[in-house]
Specification:
This protein has 15 helices and ten strands. It is elongated and about 110 Å long. It folds into two domains: 151 residues, D-Maltodextrin-Binding Protein, domain 2 (3-Layer(aba) Sandwich), CATH 3.40.190.10; 102 residues, Glycine betaine-binding periplasmic protein, domain 2 (D-Maltodextrin-Binding Protein, domain 2, 3-Layer(aba) Sandwich), CATH 3.40.190. α2 packs across α12 and α12 crosses α13. It starts with a helix and ends with a helix. The protein is of the alpha/beta class and 311 residues long. The strands form three sheets. The chain has a five-stranded mixed sheet with strand order 2-1-3-10-4, with helices on both faces. It has a three-stranded antiparallel sheet with strand order 8-5-9, with helices on both faces. Helix content is 52%, strand content 18%. α7 links the parallel β6 and β7. It comes from Lentibacillus juripiscarius. It is found in: Cell membrane. This is Glycine betaine ABC transporter substrate-binding protein. It holds the Pfam family OpuAC.
């Protein structure tokens, strides 16, 4: 009888071992299948985001970087001049950008490279360009006030308009359209510098309550810190406000499908952008400012990652 019992025990043990092995194999297969699905969603895990050197686009880029890394991508940011940015997207050395100002500011770059790019969704609505002054310059409200040299504003500024880097779309528009259209080219000169240098000169003038005219746009952190006004443009030479779009190289959607989806649904307001820009200007790194924004806006983060969770 004991022999029978022992035999039954052995058979039972063997059966349980087989069942356990079967279960382990099934779990392993299920895990492998899930891993394969995750890999298919992610596709190519190395993603390069392109941005120009202007803090409005840098802030957006680093927030997107954080979102992509959240779901498993390894992200590099390629920060360069706007012309090189578009060329890099077109030749595939960068994957995507969330800083295409269209249809006006980046028109020349878009026209040159659009056949090699995919235009994605709108990131920010109605961003504006304008010659801008501190609000305490009460008598200067329009570009025409510069033309008419109201209150000897030209002599006070030595006929200089403080600009940003020469390759910027706004600089091109100011030099090629705004200045000649208003006849400013008779006396005024557009001085190139950089975004940070322009902001530094603006701050220095405001600290002394001196006059200054700069090329500026929204969103920009200076509107958080200073009381500024954009000059009226009665000839509408800067055009109607642009929208900011995401763009990608051809084939990015197929190579990294989830990254494409997250970028394609990324959108935020000018105020949200300015909050990140202001954090950067206040001394935070780009990474820290983006992380702080997402920590302070969990609903926004969840919304932007919706595509990752719905797959």
């Amino acid at each position: 009888m004991w022999k029978k019992f022992s035999l039954i025990s052995v058979i039972f043990a063997l059966l349980m071992t087989a069942l356990t092995a079967c279960g382990d194999n099934e779990n392993s297969s299920a895990n492998d299948e899930n891993a394969n699905k995750d890999q298919q969603k992610l596709g190519k895990k190395q993603v390069t985001l392109a941005t120009d050197t202007y803090v409005s686009n840098i802030g957006a880029t680093y927030v997107v970087k954080q979102l992509l890394e959240e779901v498993g991508y390894s992200v590099t940011v390629n920060e360069t001049d706007v012309g090189i940015e578009y060329a890099g997207l077109a030749d595939g050395s960068s994957d995507a950008s969330v800083g295409a100002w269209l249809p006006t500011t980046h028109k020349s770059y878009w026209e040159e490279y659009k056949d090699k790019l995919d235009k994605m969704s709108m990131v920010t609505e109605k961003v504006e360009l304008a010659l801008t002054v501190p609000s305490y310059m009460e008598d200067i409200n329009s570009i025409e006030d510069l033309v008419n040299n109201k209150n000897n504003i030209g002599e006070k500024l030595e006929w200089d308009i403080t600009g940003i880097s020469p390759g910027a779309g706004m600089m091109e528009m100011t030099k090629e359209k705004v200045i000649p259209s208003y006849g400013l080219d008779k006396d005024w000169q557009l001085q190139s510098s950089s975004g940070p240098a322009m902001a530094a000169e603006l701050k220095a003038a405001i600290d002394k309550k001196e006059p200054i005219v700069v090329t500026l746009w929204t969103p920009h952190w200076t509107f958080n810190e200073f009381d500024l006004k954009m000059l009226e443009d009665p000839k509408n030479q800067y055009g109607d406000p642009d929208n900011v779009y995401a763009v990608s190289r051809k084939g990015f959607k197929e190579d990294s499908p989830l990254a494409y989806q997250i970028i394609d649904q990324f959108s935020w307001t000018k105020k949200q952008n300015q909050d990140v820009m202001f954090s950067i200007q206040s001394g935070m790194s780009n990474e820290e400012a983006a992380k702080k924004f997402l920590e302070n806006n969990p609903d926004f983060k969840e919304q932007m990652l919706e595509s990752a969770k719905s797959e």
